[in-house]
Amino acid sequence: MQSATLLKRSINALSKQSLIIATGKRSFQSSAILRSDALSRHIDTDDNNDHTPFDFTEENMKKVDTIISKYPPKYRQSAMIPLLDLAQRQNGGWISLKAMDKVAEIIGVAPMVAYEVASFYTMFNRTKIGKNFVQVCTTTPCMLRGSTDILNACKHHLNINVGETTKDEKFTLVEVECLGACVNAPMICINDDYYEDLTPETMKNLLTQIEKSEPTKVGPQNHRKAAEGPQGKTTLLEAPTGPICREDL
Questions:
Q1: C-alpha to C-alpha distance for 239 and 216, rounded to whole angstroms
Q2: How far apart, in whole angstroms, are the C-alpha atoms of residue 141 and residue 249?
Q3: Do residues 148 and 197 make contact, with C-beta atoms less than 8 angstroms apart?
Q4: Each residue's pLDDT tens digit, 32-91
Q5: Whole-model pTM?
Q6: What Cα–Cα distance (Å) separates residue 164 from each residue in 41, 86, 154, 171, 188?
Q7: What CATH number does the domain containing 63 carry?
């Protein structure tokens, strides 16, 4: 039976190849365009084009000066990433074309250099996002611990797909690679906070709390403390004997 199936598949493949050779045509398939595909290029919109103004607020300009002061005068360009991050935070979680231009102007580099950095690092959002940026890790450790169920819980609860924003602009949902909390998988990142050891139920409860502007518990969503094992602390049970450098340690 298996041999017959394999033979049939081979014949079909050869038939398709013969058709390609005879007609000079072949069909192409492409996957759906996700949000990550859009971040590497600029598309003019009404609120993000070459004429959309951007400037740092007076308060943030003080932060700009503080950041730049950490680097030697000849290496102001080293402040690129922290300044792009500051611009993104001021802009509501995403960075516009003119915001990148402003950062490039401040540190004395060509605008293209800022575009390249903002396009390379996934921490920078090139298009508008919701108030709560939900990043679901689906890399291997999280996948083995049920990240697919977590992602589906988010899609079902928010009624959006990956790469979309809710109609009230409260949530944007994306799928990301490793966020570095594998021992607490499955986990997600919402804005600057990590939520770990999730289940579909705790995921939905978390989203409900955020919707209602209620305080949330950051970190493990179960009994675990930080990254302790399932049996709790099993080693280093006694108080340290030294050397002690500070009394508060």
A1: 32
A2: 32
A3: no
A4: 444 444 556 778 888 888 889 999 999 999 999 999 999 998 999 999 999 999 999 999
A5: 0.74
A6: 18, 24, 12, 8, 17
A7: 1.10.10.1590
- 182 belongs to an annotated ligand binding site: yes
Domain of residue 81 covers: 37-120
Rounded distance between C-alpha atoms, residue 13 and residue 24, angstroms: 16
Distance CA 96, CA 98 (A): 6
The region, left, alpha or beta by phi > 0 then psi within -120 to 50, assigned to residue 44 is beta
Residues whose CB is less than 8 angstroms from the CB of residue 90 and which lie 6 or more positions away in sequence, other chains included: 56, 57, 60, 99
The answer on whether 142 is annotated among ligand-binding residues is: yes
189 is in an annotated binding site: no
Asked if 106 and 54 touch (Cβ cutoff 8 Å), the reply is: no
- Was 154 annotated as part of a binding site? no
